[in-house]
């Protein structure tokens, strides 16, 4: 993988999305995901649309231009629905997109809103048939009596057309809001998780799923925690993890029993009693969990920190990185304006040496595990000249503010980066601000 | 222990904010978000704990020392127990010790000598078993309640109720200083015991003629269905208060609501309609009305 172990610098490559500051709610990006080769980059938004970008192939071999992505396909994945029985509106917002490993010429992805998961086939068409016997060129049917001879239709080249078609709809399996989907390494099954249950699906079968985790208490008044994220192990098809609102992660083995309510491992770090506040429960809630590519570690994101866990050690994480510790004294205000409920995601780079997560003021943070270094960068239109190197940012927590530092009170909490993605094999990152997608690559010398 | 930088005043506003969030979530697009409401309920619980703690600490500070002492002396004649004042730090131990204790105990009530006239006594029928303090003139230790789990002996004993919600003790007995009625709230259900004859001698130190109505919170965690809850709420009455010192302008009914959100997630999912009623009518509409809740734990 490109990039030295030393000071890696990041350059602006592209920004996608509307320029104007007035953000239409439907354009708010809600998920970002590279496919397994990194050639395709999918985004989902609050309006239920999926936009797929494709890496420009001609530039792949030109190092400084390899991160050029262009729109490949756009389609409406989910529509708003109404549950008449419960008098509830079901949002069309795309919560998660997960790519399937490619098996043939077509690409497949799973997209989900709060209630329904859909399998989409994205295929290319660059030829069209011509010379039908029974049809005119415009599609009108010929009068059969006028046909005097037969010919074989031929395929002629046409402009590339990318079609997205829904191949499966997995519906009516979740009472609560779906927060995660994860494709199994067996490439046949996947899991979907809502607040209280996790279901196992076969990609071919839509009319039934197996419930593998159920944490709903008999009496809802006794509810103390919900499931916040779930993911299959990258290599072991029997293993998955799910995180909870209480800051715990449970690793489950599907071979142990049909219903994996009893975990195989419980990962939990005891709370520091000196940090106790009104909001302790909120900030310990895990918003994202991701296995490392090598399958030996997993990363969790809670409101203020990122933690790396060794799967063999349950009692504490092996590494903890503070994302924005300066917010700890602002929790009350963040509770009032609902920012404390923001669900930040996190991601690994291809070789698991660096992790990345978002913050406020359109800042995002990278933590180099080996170098024990971290950097704060900003995704903004001001720093969007082609190949402009991003300058590290610093937040001044208190005391004297140095030049170029930003004080905590100047941070814009409406500009949040919740979704980030790292190319699986290269140093190309996709960072989603509210309605824009920024693509950065490492600086090529 | 909640961090000291969050004071009781913040607790009140946090409770209001939290309730508004829960109320608003009902009308948000996409349905009620279980996760968010669960987290809000945790804030509510934490704020309530601090609020109640601070509130009763305040009550202590405003109690007139002599009034308590007088009653204490009266009680002592009936139930001479060896009692010690305890710190807040010992509260936890006291609670657990109390709950497992076989013999009946009365925790000591002590307060700083604030010379408030009896007319301003605001403790709703709280009676403190008192230690027969030797010197009887001062009590340097801070005043905190200690909860007691006692077998319901009909008369002539008094309990205290704890400032913190406590799953262990689910009985609270209070004596109304006006009517001399001993009342036990057990698992949210009210038992009215007969008058305590022996306590009539405490008349002299009683509260003034101003009538006080008593409101009892209910232990919702044990209330299974809405009908029980509604019944419990019907027992709740408004209480007027004349404290000019305290300024709870926008926290009317907070005490009532605190009692509703008994423990954990209770009161949220199955009580949505009640909450809406409370939120819209009582919390938002009525300002300046005092409500007193006795959290029966």
Automatic annotation (TrEMBL), chain A:
<dbReference type="GO" id="GO:0019888">
    <property type="term" value="F:protein phosphatase regulator activity"/>
</dbReference>
<comment type="subunit">
    <text>PP2A consists of a common heterodimeric core enzyme, composed of a 36 kDa catalytic subunit (subunit C) and a 65 kDa constant regulatory subunit (PR65 or subunit A), that associates with a variety of regulatory subunits.</text>
</comment>
<dbReference type="InterPro" id="IPR015943">
    <property type="entry name" value="WD40/YVTN_repeat-like_dom_sf"/>
</dbReference>
<dbReference type="InterPro" id="IPR001680">
    <property type="entry name" value="WD40_rpt"/>
</dbReference>
<dbReference type="GO" id="GO:0000159">
    <property type="term" value="C:protein phosphatase type 2A complex"/>
</dbReference>
<comment type="similarity">
    <text>Belongs to the phosphatase 2A regulatory subunit B family.</text>
</comment>
<dbReference type="InterPro" id="IPR036322">
    <property type="entry name" value="WD40_repeat_dom_sf"/>
</dbReference>
<dbReference type="InterPro" id="IPR018067">
    <property type="entry name" value="PP2A_PR55_CS"/>
</dbReference>
<keyword id="KW-0853">WD repeat</keyword>
<keyword id="KW-0677">Repeat</keyword>
<protein>
    <recommendedName>
        <fullName>Serine/threonine-protein phosphatase 2A 55 kDa regulatory subunit B</fullName>
    </recommendedName>
</protein>
<dbReference type="InterPro" id="IPR000009">
    <property type="entry name" value="PP2A_PR55"/>
</dbReference>
Automatic annotation (TrEMBL), chain B:
<protein>
    <recommendedName>
        <fullName>Immediate early response gene 5-like protein</fullName>
    </recommendedName>
</protein>
<dbReference type="InterPro" id="IPR008653">
    <property type="entry name" value="IER"/>
</dbReference>
<dbReference type="Pfam" id="PF05760">
    <property type="entry name" value="IER"/>
</dbReference>
<comment type="similarity">
    <text>Belongs to the IER family.</text>
</comment>
């Amino acid at each position: 993988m490109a990039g030295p172990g030393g000071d890696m610098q990041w350059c602006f490559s592209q920004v996608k999305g509307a320029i104007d500051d007035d953000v239409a709610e439907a354009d708010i990006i809600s998920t970002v995901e590279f496919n397994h080769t990194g050639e395709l980059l999918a985004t989902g938004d609050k309006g239920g649309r999926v936009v797929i970008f494709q890496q420009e192939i001609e530039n792949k071999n030109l190092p400084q231009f390899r991160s050029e992505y262009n729109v490949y396909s756009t389609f409406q994945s989910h529509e708003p629905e109404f549950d008449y029985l419960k008098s509830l509106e079901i949002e069309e917002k795309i919560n998660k997109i997960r790519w399937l490993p490619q098996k043939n010429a077509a690409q497949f992805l799973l997209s989900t809103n709060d209630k329904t998961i859909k399998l989409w086939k994205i295929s290319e068409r660059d030829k069209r048939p011509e010379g039908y016997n029974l049809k005119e060129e415009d599609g009108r049917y010929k009068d059969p009596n006028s046909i005097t001879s037969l010919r074989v239709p031929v395929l002629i080249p046409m402009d590339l057309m990318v079609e997205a078609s829904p191949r499966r709809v997995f519906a009516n399996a979740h009472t609560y809001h779906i927060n995660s989907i994860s494709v199994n390494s067996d490439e046949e099954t996947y899991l979907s998780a809502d607040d209280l249950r996790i279901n196992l699906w076969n990609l071919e079968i839509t009319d039934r799923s197996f419930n593998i985790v159920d944490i709903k208490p008999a009496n809802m008044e006794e509810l103390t925690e919900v499931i916040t994220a779930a993911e299959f192990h990258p290599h072991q098809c029997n293993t998955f993890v799910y995180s909870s609102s209480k800051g715990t992660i449970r690793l489950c083995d599907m071979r142990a029993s049909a219903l994996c309510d009893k975990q195989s491992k419980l990962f939990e770090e005891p709370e520091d009693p000196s940090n106790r506040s009104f909001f302790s429960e909120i900030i310990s809630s895990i918003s994202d969990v991701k296995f490392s590519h090598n399958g030996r570690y997993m990363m969790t994101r809670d409101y203020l920190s990122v933690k790396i866990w060794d799967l063999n050690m349950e009692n504490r994480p092996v590494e903890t990185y503070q994302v924005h510790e300066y917010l700890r004294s602002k929790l009350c205000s963040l509770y009032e304006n609902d920012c404390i409920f923001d669900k930040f995601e996190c991601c690994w780079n291809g070789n698991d040496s660096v992790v990345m997560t978002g913050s406020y003021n359109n800042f995002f943070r990278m933590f180099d595990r080996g170098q024990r270094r971290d950097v704060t960068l900003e995704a903004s239109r001001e720093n969007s000249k082609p190949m402009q190197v991003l300058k590290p940012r610093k937040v001044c927590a208190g005391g004297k503010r140095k030049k170029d530092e930003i004080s905590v009170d100047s941070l814009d909490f409406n500009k949040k980066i919740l979704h980030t993605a790292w190319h699986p094999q290269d140093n190309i990152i996709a960072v989603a601000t509210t309605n824009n997608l920024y693509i950065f690559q490492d600086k090529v010398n | 222990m909640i961090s000291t930088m969050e004071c009781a005043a913040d607790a009140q506003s946090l409770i209001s904010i939290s309730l508004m969030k829960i109320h608003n979530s009902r009308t948000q697009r996409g349905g009620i978000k279980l996760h968010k409401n669960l987290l809000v309920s945790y804030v509510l619980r934490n704020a309530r704990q601090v609020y109640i703690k601070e509130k009763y600490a305040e009550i202590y500070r405003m109690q007139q020392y002599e009034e308590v002492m007088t009653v204490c002396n009266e009680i002592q004649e009936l139930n001479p127990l060896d009692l010690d004042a305890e710190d807040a730090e010992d509260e936890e131990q006291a609670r657990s010790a109390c709950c497992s204790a076989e013999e009946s105990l009365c925790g000591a009530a002590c307060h700083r000598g604030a010379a408030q006239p009896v007319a301003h006594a605001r403790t709703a029928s709280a009676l403190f078993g008192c230690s027969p303090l030797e010197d009887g003139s001062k009590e340097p230790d801070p005043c905190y309640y200690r909860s007691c789990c006692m077998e319901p002996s009909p008369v002539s004993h008094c309990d205290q109720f704890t400032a913190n919600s406590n799953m262990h003790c689910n009985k609270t007995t209070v004596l109304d200083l006006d009517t001399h009625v001993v009342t036990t709230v057990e698992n949210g259900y009210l038992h009215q015991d007969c008058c305590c004859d022996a306590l009539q001698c405490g008349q002299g130190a009683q509260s003034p003629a101003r009538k006080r109505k008593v409101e009892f919170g209910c232990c919702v965690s044990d209330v299974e269905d809405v009908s029980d809850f509604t019944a419990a709420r019907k027992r709740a009455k408004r209480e007027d208060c004349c404290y000019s010192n305290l300024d709870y302008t926008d926290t009317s009914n907070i005490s009532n609501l605190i009692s509703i959100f008994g423990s954990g997630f209770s009161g949220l999912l199955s009580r949505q309609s009640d909450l809406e009623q409370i939120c819209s009518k009582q919390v938002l509409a009525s300002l300046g009305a005092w409500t007193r809740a006795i959290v029966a734990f």
